[in-house]
Amino acid sequence: MKITRIIKYNLLRLFRLKSGPHQVASGVTIGFIPSWLPTFGLGPILSVGMARFLKANTVSALVGGVLGTFIWPLLFFLNYKVGSLLLDRNTKVDELDEVEYIDAIEHTYTGIVSSHTSGFIFLTGAMCNIVISSIAIYIMVYIMFKTYRVRILNRIR
């Protein structure tokens, strides 16, 4: 009950923003980007900082950052899978249960140095996923705010 109340409150906050659809969609998109990388829990803070720097809506960036925080194991798993698909290499991660935050951090930093490690696979997948998800998130949020904002607000109340 409490979680649904928190979600409803944050959705109301998001849909009541005075910003236009472009600023809100940009904010959510920018806010979701750090979720693809190991940020030691600082993803939402980085999201707000990036939104301020790029003049997007900071509240929607925080929402995007928090949304990504909840699904980081799936995002990291997708990074490994997409990277191994693009580079045609095997990865040590074959299932979602095998994704460990500490291993992803280690792989990321060792991947910067060498192109033969699983970190390079992780970073390649992350960059590809960031581009694709950013385009998809922006389009979805923009359309949702442009056409369905009033209907969604009436339904949430």
From TrEMBL:
Q: Which residues form the DUF2062 domain?
A: 5-151
The identity of this protein, by name, is DUF2062 domain-containing protein
Keyword Secreted (UniProt): no
UniProt keyword Membrane present: yes
Q: Which UniProt keywords apply?
A: Membrane, Transmembrane, Transmembrane helix
The source's superkingdom equals Bacteria
Q: Please give the start and end residues of each transmembrane region.
A: 58-78, 120-145
Q: Name one Pfam family in it.
A: DUF2062
